[in-house]
Amino acid sequence: MSAPSDKPLLIVFGAGGHGRVAADAALCSGAFRGVVASDRNPAAWGTALLPGVPVLAPEALAGLPTPLALHVAIGNNPVRRQETDQLRAGLPQATLSTIVHPHASVAVTARIAPGCLITAQCVIGPLAELGAGVIVNHGAVVDHDCRIAAWAHIAPGVKLGGAVRVGEAALVGAGSTVLRNLHVGRNATLGAGAVLLQDLPEGQAWAGVPARPLQGASA
């Protein structure tokens, strides 16, 4: 086991509710020597995201002692990707890090890219794959052989059957269910509580039981 001083200091970027979830999971994991937060909103600077987790101005991050880790905790998929790219360019000394809550169940054969958040009570099944920056929120199940592309968000309580594919930056809404072998397209949205019985095309928004396209809506 590495000494505490060998562990990186984690920067959680995003001082909202999702940032608190990420910071709490990081603290519970014991994988970091400490956690600080940052945000572009000046009103957040000098506050605490959680007790003992100060919110710093972005300009202060470059002066933090290494080793550093970075996690962008923003629920909006395009914004999360944009901020990740910008921060990695400005903080090359910080390693993009995945956070796994110790009460999540992650199969040893699952493949998890950097920048993901896997929260409490999640299940990531055997041979599942998560791309960069994926969020798997509280209590979600990503079953065996699922493929979740980068920057997608699997909301709380989602159930994905085996071998489901979720496209880049898609949102699978809270409490929804996707039956095995189906595909949620890139930038698509599945509404909360929906049950998907067929493939959801790229860029479309569906909801309901069974899920159907929302009139006049696109993701």
TrEMBL record:
SUPFAM superfamilies per record: Trimeric LpxA-like enzymes
UniProt cross-references to Pfam families, sorted A to Z: PglD_N
UniProt xrefs under PROSITE patterns: HEXAPEP_TRANSFERASES
UniProt name for this protein: Putative Trimeric LpxA-like enzyme
Xref: InterPro entries: AcTrfase_PglD-like (IPR020019), Hexapep_transf_CS (IPR018357), PglD_N (IPR041561), Trans_hexapeptide_repeat (IPR050179), Trimer_LpxA-like_sf (IPR011004)
Gene3D superfamilies listed in its UniProt record: 3.40.50.20, Hexapeptide repeat proteins
Molecular function terms from GO: transferase activity
Keywords per UniProt: Transferase
Family annotation (PANTHER family): ACETYLTRANSFERASE, UDP-N-ACETYLBACILLOSAMINE N-ACETYLTRANSFERASE
Residue span(s) of domain PglD N-terminal: 10-85
Origin species: mine drainage metagenome
